[in-house]
Amino acid sequence: MDAARREKKEHGTLAFPFQIYPALDGSEADDSDFIPYHWHPELEIITVDAGHVSLTIADHTYEGTHGDVFFAAGEELHEIRAAGRENQFRSFVFAADFLQFSRADQSEFALLSPLAEGRLRFATCIRAGEPGQSEIRALLAQIVRAWQVQAPGCQLAVKAALLGIVAVCAQYDRLIGHQMRPGADYKAQQLKEIVGYLGEHFTEPLSLSAVAAEFGLSPQYFSTFFRDNFGRTFTQHINSLRIEQAARLLRETDLPVMEVGFRVGFDNFSYFIKRFRLVYGVSPSHYRKNSLT
């Protein structure tokens, strides 16, 4: 996915805006282990299905383990990391407004409209064993089964299960009113613009001072602002984007390893090998060979 900025891809269809990632038909690689910072207007439910998964949602980082459920609100920056095939997650992405009823009732007024308008949101994290977790996991399992079979009524079954999740969260007080703090809108927009800019330019030569100037900030302020909000330094973030893109090129193309390193923005081949090995535990050549087996 184009995860560096607001996603341009359509999740599902206009008639049924819902999608599961990775795709259940095997058309997408199941070993994708790094989804960089991105945002989209749809809500997203993320389940940790095996091992350990690191998630950053808004300005908080969470370490998820098997059974945990996470929610990312519409237009909320988030990132997912799950190194290795033993660590697995699944995402359910859907538009909040498609859960609404054409005939308004109490549920529409109290829950569905506020969710669609951003006045109400899911609690970000429900850990394994916490109230409501088992019911939500069961409803998500129903969605997966319905999506796999694609029998008549599949879409209604998915929608009913999503409404069930809203009901469970309401029952266990896992829906919270959302009121932006003064200045939070501006900060969120600035973070999105930074993420978008870096996502478009990370393969180019970039310096902290040049990017800071792009946003009218001093290098010192930008460095601190970046680290405080993304949980890593500017250089670490750029390297992550480059390594993730390099891994994708190694899996999906026959480009020589050196060409891959240069294409994603590294101007020193030895440094590329070193950074890649730190992330994946093997050299780029071994990573490509392993991905083909």
UniProtKB/TrEMBL annotation:
Residues 192-290 form the HTH araC/xylS-type domain. It holds the Pfam family AraC_binding. Keywords: DNA-binding, Transcription, Transcription regulation. InterPro entries: AraC-bd (IPR003313), Homeodomain-like_sf (IPR009057), HTH_AraC (IPR018060), HTH_AraC-typ_CS (IPR018062), RmlC-like_jellyroll (IPR014710), RmlC_Cupin_sf (IPR011051), Tscrpt_reg_AraC-type_HTH (IPR020449). This is Transcriptional regulator. It comes from Butyricicoccus faecihominis. The gene is bglC.
